[in-house]
Amino acid sequence: MTHPFKAVLAAAFFLIASAIAQKQLPPEGGAPKDFVLPQKTVATLPNGLTLTLVPYGEIPKVSISVVVRAGNLNEAADQVWLADVLGDLMKEGTTTRSAAQVAQDAAGMGGNVNVNVGMDVTTISGDVLSEEAPQFIRLLGEIVRHPLLPGSELARIINDKVRELSVSRSQPGPLALEEFRRLLYPNHPYGRVFPTQEMLKGYTIDEVRKFYAANFGAQRTAIFVAGMFDKSDVAQAVQDAFGDWVQGPAIFVDVPKPTTRQSFGLVERPGAPQSTIYFGIPVVNPSDKDYVKMVVTNSLLGGSFASRITSNIRERKGYTYSPYSQLSTRYRDAYWVEVADVGTDVTGAALKEIVGEIRRLQSEPPPEAELRGIQNYLAGTFVLQNSTRQGIIGQLAYLRLNELPDSYLTEYVKHVYAVTPADVQKMTQEYLRDKDMTLVIVGDKKKVEDQIKDYEKPVPEKQ
Amino acid sequence: MMTRRSFGLLGVALVALLMTTAEAAEKGFQVPVEYVKLDNGLKVVLSPDHTAPTVVVAVYYNIGFRIEPKDRTGFAHLFEHMMFQGSENLGKMEFIRLVQRNGGVLNGSTRFDFTNYFEILPSNKLETALWAEADRMKGLNITQENLTNQQGVVMNEVRVNVLNQPYGGFPWLDMPQVANSNWYNAHNFYGDLKDLEAATLGDVQQFFRTYYAPNNAALVVVGDFDPPEGLALVKKYFGGIPAVAQPPKPDLTEPRQEAEKRVTKVDTLANRPAIAIAYHMPDRNTPEYYAMGLLDEILLQGDDSRLRQQLVQKKGYTGSVDGGINLLGNMYDYDGPMLWMASMIHDKTVTADQILQAWDEVIDKVIQEPVDRATLDRALVKLRSDYYDQVGGYFGFGRADLLASFALFDNDPSRINGLEQHFAAVTPELIQKTAREYLRKGNRTILIIEPKQGS
Fold it and tell me: CA of A184 to nearest chain B CA: how many angstroms apart?
């Protein structure tokens, strides 16, 4: 619950800077240094599990992640958050260590076991002191392969989940995400953000154990180790802890067919001082050859501080504090979305500006200099993304999930710089079709309705 | 002429680089620190790290929201936004554009005792970043239009973070206001919307002239650069900025709290009750302060912590207990009275008194008996592990934050390498003594959130 007071800032390329001749120009700086991606070693065990080792940095710590292709995607329509309940229960002890012992053992290594459940993968991970890497891998092996999944703790875990659900449903952001996903992915797990309380309360320990058995196994699992560590000790520990694991279930694939027509949802929040806006559409996913063009387009339009939409609705109009657009991706799936919390009285005005910026980019290519600035920004942040232990693991796990070759990373910067102004315009025309976008607003219905008449369409029935 | 004070010499870094990684791990990680004070009083800290070709430039001004003007609550934070609205050579938004088109990211934040501004860039752009930070240290060029725009942005910031959120200011913004009694520690740091609206261009200029002087700031560079070259650039761009006499710092002290305080706040957006418990901390850098750092690890941090084991695992009252020392930063980056605080959201079927009873069982134990050696050792390991990430993580910004704080508040950034010794010197007896005085009921404030609506 830490909330540093932050000034997230934005700039506008299109505003004419007051060109006063006497002004000093910023120094250019020196010649750029080469950035080489950290070297990795990959091994595949006979049971299908892969191990990726990346020696990195000078800090005596190591990050270890066990990434399993199991998540909310594997849930049936009446099993929403079953994967999350399993994730919480995995921390409740193994067949040989109690929950308290797992916690103490991890702490004694300078770490903590974290279980994170996503749509496509469940990640069991931690950061420990370098010399503890083999012991921590053995601990993770027990948790992943031999979780106790005690029935005695299920009622408490479910009660915690019910509370978490209740809190999420009182926040505007999660409500907007829920409605947006529901509209975008009808009849697919990606469209089911929250369960009902009744659904949660109905889960049994047998159902949880069955879900585990159906979705966990060696061939769905990849282990990533980054930081300072002894390579042969770590490889041996992985062999000991995971070498005799069964191959397990094959990877499960269920690619959604998201809505590509305009849809609209208004979620009532009486008296809300702001409207929470989600405005977006399905786009090319990371496996598509045009994806990097989409990345560049997003950064220029709304995905960076100096982007057009942020410059407009924050720095020119003052309608909002932290607007952003993003490319949200899952396996063979992606959407673009602009998210903004805007003053209730300027909801319509803010939407008009957002649509205006999209249309402007559809109708004319961006100036060369503006595009070059965005390309430099993406090249710079690429270095940052690949220069922390967790960042490196994140990038490699992303490659693996999306089945991308190493060249995706090694040639990423080159591909970013190959994007032309005409490409950006074309991507906007082809994919960011404002008339086909899904709009969700969480806000004060009475005050908002009149402002957004142009976007309103019949609201689909709740599932 | 400049005075040169060098606490940890550059040589330390060179030696560290020559060692193999295994040796470095054995000897413990040493942060290279070069400390220089310019003639105009600017504190400069240089710390090379060649892990990646990036560099962090961070400027910390010794003005936080504690000591903003009394009729202008929230002004220190509003002012932080104004630092991006135009200086002599960079118009509105040009600063951000400059950093971004050079491949970098940036931000600023306002805290209890400082306001910081930082950029993380490819290391060949060090000079560009230093020039830009110097430009806005020299002076601002703000229009009424830009002030009005940012007043709108900040009011939307307050709405999105506080007014339109259940548990919006809980406990980070609310607790200092009820636990402290000195106005400087106890006012609304985000500011009343009325005060924010009332701010004028004259206020902006006055605030800048008073506090944004080189002798009230620390400049830290961390990353892939050569310290002599970096220092030459710092002198080139910052050396000519004149010092300004600083006003005396107001008295920030809090009286010893004798009786427990209990405050209830109704939250119309929340649907579950919540409780926060806060204790006044021992003074910074005292033996008891380090003991509190260890108590925090033992009681509150991580899955093995006693309060989590009690309230989450054993009693099932909540899904998580969150908190620590200084919720707006860490136990090092402040300079005044501070709270150790924990909070949790719970069900209506459990009362605040039930939670407090379970809480007190844990607290009473550390008051009544010394902690065992194994628990203390585990706390030390957790601290060391966190420390490594602080000085090695966040692209170098974590290290910059500590170096800037120790330069500004202690005039000694080399403290970054001595922290572990202070924690290692803490005995079970000192922990018990600290718990007796600082975790007493009379030293605490309980803040209860009463929800207005259903399930």
Answer: 25
* A residues 398-457 lying closer than 8 A (beta carbon) to B: none
Tell me if B100 and A377 make a contact (CB, 8 A cut-off): yes
| CA dihedral over B84, B89, B93, B94, signed as positive or negative | negative
Among partner residues A163, A305, A320, which is closest to B347 by beta-carbon distance? A163
The strand pairing partners of B116, in sequence order, are B60, B109
Q: Which residues of A touch B159 (CB under 8 A)?
A: 273-274, 321, 341, 343
Rounded to whole angstroms, the Cα distance separating A361 from A297 reads: 9
* CB neighbourhood size of B310 (10 A): 18
Whether B97 and A13 lie within 8 Å, measured CB to CB: yes
CA distance A155 to chain B (A): 10
Locus of tokens 């950093």: B99
Does any CB of chain B come closer than 8 Å to the CB of residue A34? yes
Q: Among positive and negative, which fits the CA dihedral B135, B137, B139, B142?
A: positive
The CA distances from residue A40 to A132, A218, A240, A323, A393, in Å, are 20, 21, 21, 36, 11
CATH code 3.30.1490.150 for A41-242: no
Q: Do domains A41-242 and A263-365+420-456 have the same CATH topology?
A: yes
Query: A263-365+420-456: CATH homologous superfamily?
Result: Metalloenzyme, LuxS/M16 peptidase-like (3.30.830.10)
Domains of chain B: 4-238 (3.30.830.10), 261-451 (3.30.830.10)
Return per-residue pLDDT of chain B as tens, 455 residues. Answer: 233 222 222 222 222 333 333 344 445 689 999 999 999 999 999 999 999 999 999 999 999 999 998 989 999 999 999 999 999 999 988 999 999 999 999 999 999 999 999 999 999 999 999 999 999 999 999 999 999 999 999 999 999 999 999 999 999 999 999 999 999 999 999 998 899 999 999 999 999 999 999 999 999 999 999 999 999 999 999 999 999 999 999 999 999 999 999 999 999 999 999 999 999 999 999 999 999 999 999 999 999 999 999 999 999 999 999 999 999 999 999 999 999 999 999 999 999 999 999 999 999 999 999 999 999 999 999 999 999 999 988 899 999 999 999 999 999 999 999 999 999 999 999 999 999 999 999 999 999 999 986 55
Q: Where are the domains of chain A?
A: 41-242, 263-365+420-456
A:B CB pairs within 8 Å: 304
Residues of A in contact with B153 (CB under 8 A): 314-315, 318, 320-321
